[in-house]
Amino acid sequence: MIQPDETAAPAPARGLLLGSRAARWGVDWRYVWYRLSASPLTVAGFAIVSVVIAAMILAPAIAPYDPNRLSLAVRLAAPSWQHVFGTDEVGRDLLSRVIWGSRASVVAGLVTVAISMSIGTCIGAVSGLFSGWVDTVIMRIMDVLLAFPSFILAMALAAALGPSLMNAILPIAIVRTPFYVRLARGQALTLRDRAYVRAAETFGSSSWHIVWRHILPNSMAPIIVQATLDIGLAILTVSALSFIGLGAQQPTAEWGAMVANGRAYFLDQWWYPMFPGLAILVTAIGFNLVGDGLRELLDPRLRGR
Amino acid sequence: MSLLQILCRRLLLASLVIFGVLVVTFITSRLIPGDPARLMTGEHASRETVQHMRHVLGLDKPLPEQFGIYLVKLAHGDLGISIRTERPVSEDIRRFFPATIELSLSALLFAVAAGVPLGVTAAVYKDSWIDQAVRTVSVIGISMPAFWLGLLLLDFFYNWLGILPGTGRLDEGITAPPFITGMFTVDALLAGQWHTLYSALTHIALPAFTLGFVNLGIIMRQIRSAMIEVLQEDYIRTARAGGLSAARIIFGHALRNAMIPSVTMLGLLFGDLLYGAVLTETIFAWPGMGNYVIQSIGFLDFPSIMGFAMVASLAYVLLNLAVDLSYMMLDPQIREIG
């Protein structure tokens, strides 16, 4: 039965999203601003992520040189005004390669998370909504996947598929999927009994419609937090796979692969592995700070802590 | 649910996972583009030689039968022959595993020894400068590419300051201590070889710090948030009202309760340690499993890659099972929840 108090319009909660009408993505900007002003680390995170994404989009416009242009006259040049980050062993400008590298590393991180999030969320929502044997089978498979040491599995899969950036993305996406399945299933289980879902069922909405219109939009908050934190992790993992030779291949400008190439020169040309590695660190810090900030914004239990 | 039922369920799940590990490593090793027989016999081998090798390797049999043979061989500890070292993979793993265990344990020891006190301090003095510092360091730790940190430390302490050795496990001219555990620091200590112990310690310092730093961030964060939660509990307020000293409350009551959820994390950290060890070992030329498997990847040496993946996964699954069981012993509440 529908409880009368549940059908009443929810009071505008002081939160980022307004009550169960969150499906409409009503955002209380004054509240967001209030929370952000109290958390300088989150603001720093947003600033880093904005700069990285801008660099990624504007790479052709802002990179001072062609990232793949060889100029043997300036091999392994130290940082200078001409080459701010120095040059590599074939005279390619490292600043340009680091900027262009965001198109490989950050995009790889984003794609990885997009794949695991979308697949995992759908499986989880279906699993939670239907329960029964479908749920049991899905969750046992996820338990098995979760029990694997994920990087070792990703490494074995990437090695078997052959080294390429795409073959590094896929295994990482697979091993991260169960986290979203669990999250979305938990959300679906609590949402399943809400009045508006029951009402939709009563009016004959299809299961697909219920998942798409009610379950997914209302369970997005924790999933988005998880995804933001995961982007940093995915960038780290993709660059680690590239570092050990299982990801991006020459001459692609990718941060992990650049550190790997620079390794042979680091005793005398410290700048070569220094800047690509710094790019990985700073980008991962940015996404982690944003993720932490979003979690505090969206999780009422953490407020005021 | 009774404790026994939970125990049975966990054991059943663990055996399911182990079976999954075997299936995945088997399928992955059959996914390889190219023919393992061709890889083993070399580029210029004749068709007959390759055919013969396929027969020797059992690759001409149907897949389910191959899987059966794989399981039987595994039960006898046979992981195949490494293409690169031409030794049995199981022998290679026995040879290189102690170094990885030594590195991982040292890293974990460092991360726990530094992370727990720092996490507790941050929680007790929440929002103070020390809390901000701990939170900043933990975000940096979580975001740190271990392979890059290793390079920087090597450059600074070995190349620049020259106070720590660069690579390997012992200085040249020093022989390994008598084999007891295979961990040089422990063996040297047990044998009373102080000079060897010193050399082993200076060699493990940088790799252990590199690997530990990444996990330090995770431990500090976990302990901090668990402590903040516990410190808000009613029983802490009661203890305070009862006039217990701050130290008694923090270490005797709060930390003990905050440690319970943190135990599970230690098992999961082992997976991160293995992953970090692969990267750290390559940087410091640490002769462990990680270094071994990276070199194997270069040679497309699939028997050793899969052997490593399987042994590492098994170790991870069994360790997490042990952690879960000890967790049930520690926390009576979990028996109710199941």
The radius of gyration over CA of chain B amounts to: 24 Å
| Low-confidence sequence ranges of chain B | none
- Compressed to H and E, one letter per element, the order of chain B equals HHHHHHHHHHHHHH
Order of helices and strands of chain A: HHHHHHHHHHHH
Question: Largest interface, with Cβ-Cβ < 8 Å?
Answer: A-B, 46 and 55 residues
- Give the radius of gyration of chain A: 23 Å
**Beta-strand content estimate of chain B:** under 5%
What would you call the shape of chain A? elongated
What is the CA–CA distance across the termini of chain B?
Answer: 6 Å
Morphology call of chain B: globular
State the secondary-structure class of chain A. mainly alpha
Q: Count of DSSP helices of chain A?
A: 12
Overview of the molecule:
The complex is a heterodimer of chains A (305) and B (338). Chain A is mainly α. Chain A has helices spanning 4-7, 29-37, 40-62, 94-130, 132-146, 150-161, 165-191, 195-202, 207-218, 220-243, 255-262, 271-298. The longest helix of chain A has 37 residues, at 94-130. Chain A is elongated and about 75 Å long. Mean pLDDT of chain A is 81; it is low at 1-24. Chain B is built from 14 helices and no strands. In chain B, helix 8 (184-191) crosses helix 9 and helix 12 packs antiparallel against helix 13 (302-330).
Key features of this structure:
heterodimer; A: 305 residues; mainly alpha; 12 helices; 0% strand; elongated; B: 338 residues; 14 helices
What's the structural blueprint in terms of helices and strands?
The complex is a heterodimer of chains A (305) and B (338).
Chain A: H1 4-7, H2 29-37, H3 40-62, H4 94-130, H5 132-146, H6 150-161, H7 165-191, H8 195-202, H9 207-218, H10 220-243, H11 255-262, H12 271-298
Helix pairs in contact in A: 3-4, 3-12, 4-5, 4-7, 4-9, 4-10, 4-12, 5-7, 6-7, 7-9, 7-10, 8-9, 10-11, 10-12, 11-12
Chain B: H1 3-31, H2 36-41, H3 47-57, H4 63-75, H5 89-124, H6 129-143, H7 146-160, H8 184-191, H9 194-231, H10 234-241, H11 246-284, H12 289-298, H13 302-330, H14 333-337
